[in-house]
C-alpha cells in the first residue's frame, strides 16, 4: 500500500511535524500492504486507530497498551489523519479479515475450544438439574 506522503531526499516516506520532517520509518514497520506495525512492538496500527475512531483519547490508548509510548500513539493518529482515505481502506480490509477469521474460528473451533465448550455445557446442565 502506498500512502500519500511527502518524499524527502533519502526517498523515505515522511510527514511534517512542527517544521521538522519525520520519516514514517521512524515510527512504523511496513511489513506488507496489510500489516503495518508500530516500530519496536507487535502492535498493528489498526489497534490504535480502532480505539481512536471509537473516541478513546490518546492518553487512554497509551494506558491500554503499555508497550506503546504516547508519542507512538500520536504518531499513529497523525499518520492516519495525513493518509485518511488510504488508511480507511486499510482498516476496512483489516476489519473484513478479522470478521472472516472470527467466523472461521466459530465454524471450526480448535480442540481446546471444543473441550472448554463441552465443560461449560456440562456445568450448565448440572446447574439446571440441581
TrEMBL record:
This is DUF433 domain-containing protein. SUPFAM superfamilies: Homeodomain-like. Pfam families: DUF433. InterPro entries: DUF433, Homeodomain-like_sf, WH-like_DNA-bd_sf. It comes from the Bacteria.
Amino acid at each position: 500500500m502506498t500512502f500519500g506522503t511527502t518524499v524527502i531526499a533519502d526517498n523515505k516516506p515522511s510527514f511534517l511535524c512542527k517544521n521538522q520532517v519525520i520519516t514514517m520509518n521512524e515510527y512504523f514497520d511496513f511489513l506488507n500492504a496489510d500489516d503495518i506495525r508500530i516500530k519496536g512492538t507487535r502492535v498493528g496500527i489498526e489497534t490504535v486507530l480502532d480505539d481512536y475512531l471509537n473516541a478513546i483519547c490518546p492518553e487512554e490508548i497509551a494506558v491500554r497498551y503499555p508497550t506503546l509510548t504516547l508519542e507512538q500513539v500520536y504518531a499513529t493518529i497523525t499518520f492516519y489523519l495525513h493518509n485518511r482515505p488510504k488508511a480507511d481502506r486499510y482498516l476496512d480490509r483489516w476489519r473484513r479479515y478479522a470478521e472472516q477469521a472470527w467466523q472461521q474460528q466459530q465454524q471450526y473451533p480448535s480442540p481446546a475450544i471444543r473441550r472448554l465448550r463441552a465443560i461449560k455445557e456440562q456445568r450448565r446442565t448440572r446447574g439446571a438439574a440441581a
